[in-house]
């Protein structure tokens, strides 16, 4: 396994052609399909965040207990595979039954993403 800060740009995969996506605002690596969006009303470390079903081109940091607005969760920070920018975190374990829906989901910081709409222009 590669370290969090090692060069992994060559491992970035190009995915989701012709689909609306979210991309890294630093290096433009594709991070998630817009269809994977669960909620826009989450708070990240640096402002608003998106709760996502899945994401790609990310690498996980180490698991840690973190006090969040809804209690102490077990999370792993996630980093862009292309540029090592911290984009948010992955919910490993939630504190109680009311929060369990977050387990296995990603919180991605809105300010660190670019919305790509994959529009087609008619010739």
UniProtKB/TrEMBL annotation:
One MF annotation (Gene Ontology) recorded for this entry: metal ion binding
Keyword line: Metal-binding, Zinc
InterPro entries for this protein: Yippee (IPR034751), Yippee/Mis18/Cereblon (IPR004910), Yippee_fam (IPR039058)
Boundaries of every Yippee domain copy: 20-117
Highest taxon in the source lineage: Eukaryota
PROSITE patterns membership: YIPPEE
Family statement drawn from the similarity comment of this UniProt entry: Belongs to the yippee family.
Protein name (Swiss-Prot/TrEMBL): Protein yippee-like
Protein species of origin: Phlebiopsis gigantea (strain 11061_1 CR5-6) (White-rot fungus)
């Amino acid at each position: 396994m590669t370290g969090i800060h090692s060069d992994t740009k060559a491992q970035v995969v190009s995915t989701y052609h012709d689909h609306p996506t979210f991309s890294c605002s630093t290096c433009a690596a594709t991070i998630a399909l817009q269809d994977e969006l669960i909620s826009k009303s989450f708070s990240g470390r640096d402002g608003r965040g998106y709760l996502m079903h899945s994401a790609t081109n990310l690498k996980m940091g180490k698991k840690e207990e973190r006090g969040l607005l809804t209690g102490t969760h077990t999370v792993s920070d996630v980093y862009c595979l292309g540029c090592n920018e911290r984009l948010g975190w992955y919910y490993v374990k939630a504190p109680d039954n009311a929060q369990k829906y977050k387990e296995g989901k990603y919180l991605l910081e809105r300010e660190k993403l670019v919305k790509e709409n994959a529009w087609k222009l008619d010739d």
